[in-house]
């Protein structure tokens, strides 16, 4: 019996050491990869970004606001914090993490999307793995663990959290071993345009109208964040970036949602740059789908945005 227990302990120890080693390889690899899910977090944790201007938003932000053009035209240092598939609560969470490792920006552009910004993150399954490499950051994980169902075992048992995430497992190992090019990689300061063909999707062909829910908690978060940023001396600008105009006709309460942004704008003196009726919105050649700009659209929109930011005096804020 003693011999059995001894051998059992030896095998358990070997398995544990192996798990620790593989966990280290995956985590280290993902932390240096350019995969979209991890690229922005990696930049944040490295620190030293110290952007003059940051963009806050969801997927419409990361594929629509070109940091190449913002930097070149406005002669500043920008960073795009666009957070795929997550509304305002997690967008602000990412910004808060950014501030722990990087200096205060001078300008914040908040992309105000009528169908998602004023919501609260509820889909715990969507890309929960993006937090796995940073599992030792108690400040971050304590804020996401309930929604993202990150358990004690995920946090403390080596390799456990990567079970069921084969692609990330393999990509982490590949990156650790030196591979640099991945699908959805090539992010530039949080931005990557979508060079894809037009896909109308099902919503435009349906007769059903949609009433978008406005979460009071989300309104409170946006209001508090705007107030605190203004008190810090940061210039906040709300931006309604272009969406394919026929989509807006499918929603019954666009004006109600817009009134939320207008109310906060008036309260804190925040400018609103509205591109919801620009010429871009009328032409599907600028979009990959009704809600997301393609490369051509991102370039056209960002050039127009830079012109308007210059017109309202951005150089005085820098």
What string gives the helices and strands in order?
HHEHHEHEHHHHEHHEEEHH
CATH architecture: 3-Layer(aba) Sandwich
| Oligomer designation | single chain
Distance between the first and last residues' Cα: 73 Å
Return residue spans where pLDDT drops below 50 for at least 5 consecutive residues: none
Q: What is the rounded Rg?
A: 22 Å
CATH topology: Rossmann fold
Work out the count of structural domains: 1
Strand content: 5-15%
Q: What is the helix content?
A: 40-55%
Number of E-type strands: 7
Walk across the major sheet and give the strand order. Answer: 2-1-3-4-5
CATH class: Alpha Beta
Shape: globular
Major pleated sheet: 5 strands, parallel
Overall residue-averaged pLDDT value: 91
What do we call the CATH homologous superfamily?
SGNH hydrolase
Structural class: alpha/beta
Number of helical segments with 4 or more residues: 13
Put the structure in a nutshell.
By secondary structure, the chain is an alpha/beta fold. It has helices spanning 2-31, 36-46, 59-62, 67-74, 88-101, 138-144, 152-156, 166-176, 216-231, 245-248, 254-268, 295-311, 314-317; strands at residues 53-56, 78-80, 107-111, 235-240, 272-274, 287-289, 292-293.
């Amino acid at each position: 019996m003693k011999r059995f227990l001894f051998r059992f302990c030896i095998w358990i120890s070997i398995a544990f050491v192996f798990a620790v080693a593989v966990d280290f390889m995956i985590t280290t690899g993902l932390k240096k990869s350019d995969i979209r899910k991890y690229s922005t977090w990696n930049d944040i944790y490295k620190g030293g970004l110290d952007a003059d201007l940051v963009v806050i938003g969801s997927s419409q932000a990361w594929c629509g606001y070109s940091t190449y053009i913002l930097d070149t035209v406005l002669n500043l240092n920008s960073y795009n914090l666009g957070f795929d598939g997550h509304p305002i609560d997690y967008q602000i969470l990412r910004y808060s993490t950014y501030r722990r490792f990087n200096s205060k920006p001078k300008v914040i552009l908040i992309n105000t999307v009528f169908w998602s910004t004023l919501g609260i993150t509820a889909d715990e399954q969507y890309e929960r793995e993006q937090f796995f490499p940073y599992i030792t950051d108690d400040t971050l994980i304590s804020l996401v663990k309930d929604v993202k169902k990150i358990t004690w075992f995920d946090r403390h048992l080596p390799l456990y959290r990567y079970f069921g995430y084969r692609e990330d497992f393999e990509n982490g190992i590949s990156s650790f071993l030196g591979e640099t090019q991945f699908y959805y990689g090539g992010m530039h300061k949080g931005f990557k345009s979508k060079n894809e063909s037009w896909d109308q999707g099902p919503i435009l062909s349906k007769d059903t109208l949609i009433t978008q829910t406005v979460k009071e908690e989300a309104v409170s978060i946006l209001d508090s964040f705007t107030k605190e940023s203004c008190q810090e001396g940061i210039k906040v600008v709300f931006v309604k970036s272009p969406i394919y105009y026929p989509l807006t006709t499918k929603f019954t309460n666009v004006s109600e949602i817009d009134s939320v942004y207008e109310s906060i704008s008036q309260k804190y003196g925040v400018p609103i740059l509205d591109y919801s009726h620009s010429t871009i919105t009328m032409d599907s050649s600028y979009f990959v789908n009704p809600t997301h700009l393609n490369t051509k659209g991102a370039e056209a929109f960002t050039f127009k945005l830079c012109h308007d930011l210059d017109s309202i005096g951005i150089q005085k804020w820098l």
